[in-house]
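Standup notes, protein team

Yesterday: finished cleaning the Methylorubrum zatmanii set.
Today: ABC transporter ATP-binding protein structure.
Blockers: none.

Input for ABC transporter ATP-binding protein:
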Amino acid sequence: MLDIRDLAFGYGARAVGTGLTLTLEPGEALCLLGPNGGGKTTLFKTLLGLLRPLAGRVLLDGTDLATLPRRAIAQAIAYVPQAHAALFPFSVRDVVLMGRASRLSAFASPGPADRAAAERALAALGIGHLAERIYTEISGGERQLALIARALAGEPRLLVMDEPTASLDFGNQARVLSQIRRLSDLGIAVVLSTHDPGHAFLCADRVALLHGGRLVALGPPAETVTPDSLRLLYGVEVAVVPLPEQGRTVCTPLIG
Ligand SMILES: Nc1ncnc2c1ncn2[C@@H]1O[C@H](COP(=O)(O)OP(=O)(O)OP(=O)(O)O)[C@@H](O)[C@H]1O
């Protein structure tokens, strides 16, 4: 559904990344790893159509993003920001309902179909019990789930998530990662960034490693997340340890 061809992305004349080529299938979860300042957010802004490619193309179902109306992009691709403290005390239900904005005509109010979509999104994320709570009065983890529900309410086909586990405690990280797996099981493609390479093993079908403005590796977690690739990315020694009994792999930096 998403086809990125020889993309250069950045700001003005300054390229942050170049030569990026990859495709994303419906229901695929792609984890983007890279150091601070590596260009993950800039790439996301380009995929959302907020920044124009400096070169190359981004195709959504075969159509160049640059030729699509903003509304069509917003209906297909939803962005999940990091959970933040909102300024206004909306209920969680109303925050989730805001995810329908791209589906409403100008000045229209949400109707029964919009409310039903919001309820489905709340249920899918398992946060129906929070619907009446005030968004500014729930925890960071609950807010992150509410933001994912908001994105889901718009019935997108691709979710772009910038560090969805940042600032979450261990339990909420696990909850968000397992929700990402469920979304991709529902056929929704997900692109997420994280600073924890272990997360790639928990939720991603494929991993893209961004370093020095280039895609240095792209493939299944077991093939791409290795001590060598993590040394290149982060400049530290990392042990990548399979847990055969759990069918999992964990990453830990080797310090001291
Ligand atoms: N609005 C902007 N105008 C110009 N340059 C920018 C802008 N925003 C970010 N940059 C630069 O683009 C480069 C990539 O930044 P970006 O935020 O995309 O990295 P990132 O991988 O998301 O980093 P982090 O992991 O720290 O969030 C950095 O050198 C940054 O200073």
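Follow-up from PR in the comments: The first helix runs from residue 40 to 47.
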